[in-house]
């Protein structure tokens, strides 16, 4: 089931609609590639809800000789039951990938194959554990997420919904960082500190921000809503809302160019943007 952009926009965050489409896509995928039948059945068709499917995926991916799938599955099931907003966040993240990534034409792709989406849902489990005071288990989730997906997000970091982490390799997000809603970032992004100071020391990313591949945002600085950070930039100072910054160190080179950079995913910097 291949979707054009206009068709994608018709699908809302409705729980039943998303789960129904996932099931339809799963059946079509099995018919098209029977060798993946066991994987798709176990990952999607065997379950009664997206939350159950995500709990299974979480436990399967992060289990190790030190921690069984059963224990991790129980943790995830408890988290989704205790905090229904986790399921809502997962749907918003899923739709963010579906809408913004031109390589994604089915919902099953992020759920089964994309480490950015799966790592973000694993972070959400770790953050739930952190808020429950289960700090060591949260650190275990962080460690395994880094080992399995190459994504290192501290469980105390705060991340909004509708977030897309595209490709996701070498993402690092520090302990006191915050990321707003509807943010898009590409691989090798770092939201880090500037030294060995403690306390509030990591970036605060606003809503609707687009962060290009390899960008480094360092220190307790604010990146304003609907701004763009060009690929490879090193951001050390506050970024005003609706602006584009680029360079090492980064400086403002113009407006963001559109109302919602994280949705347009336009990384090009026109010559007219430079002074």
TrEMBL record:
Span of domain Serine acetyltransferase N-terminal: 18-122
EC numbers, comma separated: 2.3.1.30
Superkingdom of the organism of origin: Bacteria
Any Pfam family matching the protein: SATase_N
GO annotations of cellular component type: cytoplasm
Keyword Iron in record: no
Catalytic activity: L-serine + acetyl-CoA = O-acetyl-L-serine + CoA
Keywords: Acyltransferase, Amino-acid biosynthesis, Repeat, Transferase
Gene Ontology molecular function: serine O-acetyltransferase activity
CDD domains membership: LbH_SAT
Gene Ontology BP terms: cysteine biosynthetic process from serine
Family membership noted in the UniProt record: Belongs to the transferase hexapeptide repeat family.
Protein name: Serine acetyltransferase
């Amino acid at each position: 089931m291949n979707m054009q952009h206009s068709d994608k926009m018709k699908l809302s965050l409705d729980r039943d609609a998303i789960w129904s489409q996932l099931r339809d896509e799963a059946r079509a995928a099995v018919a098209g590639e029977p060798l993946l039948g066991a994987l798709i059945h176990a990952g999607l068709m065997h379950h009664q809800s997206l939350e159950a499917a995500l709990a299974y995926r979480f436990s399967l991916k992060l289990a190790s000789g030190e921690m069984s799938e059963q224990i991790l599955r129980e943790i995830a099931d408890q988290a989704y039951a205790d905090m229904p907003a986790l399921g809502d966040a997962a749907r918003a993240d899923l739709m963010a990938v579906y809408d913004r990534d031109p390589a994604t034409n089915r919902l099953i792709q992020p759920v089964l194959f994309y480490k950015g989406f799966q790592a973000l849902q694993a972070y959400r489990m770790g953050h739930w554990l952190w808020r429950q005071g289960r700090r060591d288990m949260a650190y275990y989730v962080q460690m395994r997420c880094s080992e399995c997906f190459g994504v290192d997000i501290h469980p105390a970091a705060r991340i909004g919904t509708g977030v897309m982490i595209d490709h996701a390799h070498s993402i690092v997000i520090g302990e006191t960082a915050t990321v707003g809603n509807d943010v898009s970032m590409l691989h090798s992004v770092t939201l880090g500190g500037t030294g060995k100071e403690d306390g509030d020391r990591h970036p605060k990313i606003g809503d609707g921000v687009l962060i290009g591949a390899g960008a480094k945002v360092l220190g307790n600085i604010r990146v304003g809503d609907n701004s763009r950070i060009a690929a490879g930039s090193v951001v050390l100072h506050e970024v005003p809302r609706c602006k584009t910054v680029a360079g090492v160190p980064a400086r403002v080179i113009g407006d963001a160019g559109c109302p919602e950079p994280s949705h347009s995913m336009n990384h090009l910097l026109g010559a007219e943007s430079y002074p």
